[in-house]
Structures are given as structure tokens and as C-alpha cells.
Amino acid sequence: LSDDEDIKLMLKGSLLWKIKAPRAKERLYRLQEDGLTIWFERRFRHARSKHIFSVMHIEGVRPGRQSEGLRKFGGSFPEGRCFTIVFKGKRKNLDLAAGAEEDARHWVQGLSKLMARVAAMSQREKLEQYPCWIHDILRRADKNRDNKMCFGEVKDMLRMINIDMNDVYAYKLFKECDRSGDGRLEERELEEFCRRLLRRPELEELFRRFSGEDCVLSAEELRDFLREQGEDASLRRARALIHAYELSERAKQQDLMMLDGFMMYLLSADGDILNQEHTKVHQDMSQPLCHYFISSSHNTYLTDNQIGGTSSTEAYVRALMKGCRCVELDCWEGSDGEPIIYHGHTLTSKILFRDVIESIRDYAFKQSPYPVILSLENHCGLEQQATMARHMKAILGDMLLTEPLDGQDPKDLPSPEVRPSLSGEAHVPTRPRACSFLLQQLKGKVLVKGKKLPDLQCEPQSGGSPSGCEEEEEEEEEEEEGLQERGPRQGPGAGVALRLLWLRQAKEASEVAPELSSVVVYCQAVPFPGLAEALRDPRPCQVSSFSERKARKLIREAG
């Protein structure tokens, strides 16, 4: 890649504007000679500070204003000069603007090429890149630059490398490694702390069981392990794994595997219990929609805790890019007639419903072509419900499913796709009941899950079903349980007041605007009628939600 024009510009470096607030900051960004490290320089109280991040930790690059930060603060920069670097884990996006559109294009294309190079790397090649990254993490965590780390600095280091560890356990490890007893870890002590973090006692026990007293796996012993796991147990396969994952060149030459190599293998794709062929869609996708488990997200909008965390459209982007096909939108009355999304009755921040729908439009089908379900938890009045429907229709356009496919009976569920048979004709899914399912595919379609106004032409449901208000009570009951588990303790008076507020809101939300009702086609939210009724009269287009407590109660009652 050294002769690539994009890489050449990155190696030379560019002055880029970091956009994090209304006032952007100019910094120098440069690709290092290793082709995997981005170096940047910033000013802090008039002193220059140098930092790096690794290409290995970049999840994606978005050209233009395709992030919440750039849409909010990047309006003064032309869209062609803007781009966003998305990191893996919890690290926040890096929103940047170049001095010219050509520079921005070089960085977007260059980073994409470097990411493709990383994806093609072997496990060993990736491992060789970590020392530089670890060194930078340690330097950043050592705030007073004394080459020692107190417990607070160690906690910062753990956060930087995305390790979420219990403070009590982390402090226990810290004290065990603090040989000097001065409350600070020096170089060797810190190395021991990191080694303990990486320990996997259960894997060490497994290694000892097959390696014997010498604690070294021969190719024959590795073959025995593979045979017990029901895998390809040939000596050729065992030797191939040793040469792929063993870190010691001397051990590799003798067809031996040490503990570190064994753990490298077990934690790799080759050692994964998941069949790698199953990381791609391999199931029959021509069955009715209700025949599938659907990857779903709860409180999708939150990037942190559900008491005072931040709500963000970026949370929807990340969920969709991870393959979620059902996302949740908690909709509440907003100012200026615009519905908002947040965790009601908490201190979480608020985002516009309209902005969320725009993000869903842009990312719904980048990771998967299969339908996306918008699960609406509706707390809005009739006027803003109508606004929600208008936004979905205007923003999603033809992606939004607003009527049964081909005008067929909405009581029958279609399939995610049509699977052609060997003869070239569409595969017809079979069903025990005498009712044919639709064959049209739902690929690329957005479905809305929500309440629907009663259809006077349909036969009424049997009695005994809870009212709409009672259904809202169940949903709010589930939220209340979650808040009680995670939130601070409150007096009984506060709980009663909050409950009354929820009940009043549930009553208001039991009314459904015709505009919003009309976009609910195959996923009608209804109160659960009970197991006996559901089995006697199944209605595939109806969806019910209830708390775990309610689920356990239903199971007990059903015997």
C-alpha cells in the first residue's frame, strides 16, 4: 500500500478539524510508518500533546455528515469535507472535517483500505501490533508521568481497553500485585497485574489435562483433544493448528504447543464452538415471519444506564449494524409539536423521533436485507401520533410497509424472502392449517409494531381480554421492575405518585390516532389473551409483550 495515493497523503499528514461542539478544534493527524497507527497532536493549555489510536480498533468510516455529532455541530463545514471514524466498543465516534473535499476522500478511502488489510491479517500479525497500542494506553493512564500507577490510574487503563471489572475484584488483584506495598504498581508489578487479568483458569486446567506433567502439548496430544471435541482429529490438522497459533518459534519447529498458543487457538475462530458457516444466513428464510427468533434490542436509544444515561441516534446505528432487526422507540410528547424519544420519567436525555427515523432509514439494511421492525412504545397524544406517522411516511418512503403485500389478507404473515426451487419456481412454504401464506418477500421493508384501531368488519375477539389500558399497565409494570432493580431506593410516597402518573399516561396512550394505526400492518400490539386462547385461536399478526414475572405466572398456571 506504500505506493497508494490515499496512503501517501495519510503518511504525509493532514490538518483536520475535530468537531465535538459548536467550536471545532484543528489538529494534525498522520498515519505512522507501520500503516496501522494514527498519530495526532493536540494543544492542552498551550502545551502540545501527542496521542495515537490503532486502525485495528476502527469499526467503520462514514463519509459526509452521517453522525449525530456532525449533523448537530458540523453545519459550518461542507458535507463533502466531513467524515466520521467509528470505533469498536464504547469509545465515542471521532467526527472530522478536512480542509478540502479531496483530502477527506483520501482519508475515507485510505482508512477503508487499511481496515481491509487488518481484516486479512493472521492472528500472529495482529498480535505483533499490540505493544505500540498498549504502550500508548499505559502512558495515557499514567497521568502524573511517574512511571507508576495508583489504583485510580489502573481503573482508567481498564476503561480505555474496554474491560468492565468489579472494583472490589480489581482492587484485590491490585493489592496482590503491589509487592512494595506503596499503593503504586511499578513496571514488573503492572506486568503481573495484566497477566492476571488475562488468566483463564478453566483453560489452564484443560491444557494440563491433555499436556501432562511437562505442560507442553505434542501434536499427538492436541490430536487427542480434537478427537474428544468431535473435530477433525488428524495429525495433519493438529500440526497445522500448532503452526498457525503457537507463539514460540522453537516450540513450533518441534510441533509443540505451549499454554499461550493453546489459548490463542481456543479463542480464535478455529476454536469457536459456533460453526463458521453459520455466521452467514444458512436457514430456510421462506417460512412465515413468526417462525423465526428475531434479533431484538430493548431501550435501543440508550448509550448508558436507563436512569440518567444519554439517548442517541448513534445507538440505533450501532444496533442495526450489529444485525438487530427489531428496535425500540419510546415515544413521548415533545415541545413544538415534535415527538421525542427517551426513557420516560427518568433523567435520560431526549432525542427527536424524526432524527431517529432518519438514522433508521440510512442504516436499516446495510448489515442485513431482512425486514426491520420498529417497536413503538407510544406515550404521545393523538396530534403527535399523527406527526409520527407523517415522519415515517415522508422519511422512509417506499421502505415503510403501509398495507398488506399485494392487497392480501393481513391476517396471514409473509416470509422474509422467497426461496427459488431447483426448477426456478418460487418455493411454497407449507403450513398444517388450511391457510396459505403470502410468498412476497419482505426484504428491505420496515414494519411498525403498535396498537391498531379496531376493524369493524372483523369479528370481535372473545371476551376476557384485558383492555388497552391494562396492556399499558403491564408494559409500565415491566419498566417499574427494571427501575426498582437499578435505581436508588425511594420512599413509598414517591412510588405511589409515580405509579399514578404512569396510569394516567397509560390511559391517554390507549387512544390511537388513525394515521398511526394505518401504518401498523403485520405487527399489531395486543394484550396477551392467555395461553389457552392463543392456542385455540392463533393470530400470527398480533404481538404481545409482558414482563418476566408475568411470563413465569403464565407458565405456572399452564402447569
UniProtKB/TrEMBL annotation:
It is an enzyme of class 3 (hydrolase). One of its GO terms (molecular function) is calcium ion binding. The keyword Transmembrane does not apply. It is found in: Cleavage furrow; Cytoplasm. It holds the Pfam family EF-hand_10. Residues 516-559 form the PI-PLC Y-box domain. Residues 469-482 have a biased composition (Acidic residues). InterPro entries: EF-hand-dom_pair, EF_Hand_1_Ca_BS, EF_hand_dom, PH-like_dom_sf, PH_domain, PI-PLC_fam, PLC-delta3_EF-hand, PLC-like_Pdiesterase_TIM-brl. Its main location: other. It comes from the Eukaryota. It catalyses: a 1,2-diacyl-sn-glycero-3-phospho-(1D-myo-inositol-4,5-bisphosphate) + H2O = 1D-myo-inositol 1,4,5-trisphosphate + a 1,2-diacyl-sn-glycerol + H(+). GO terms for biological process: intracellular signal transduction; lipid catabolic process. This is Phosphoinositide phospholipase C. It comes from Nothoprocta pentlandii.
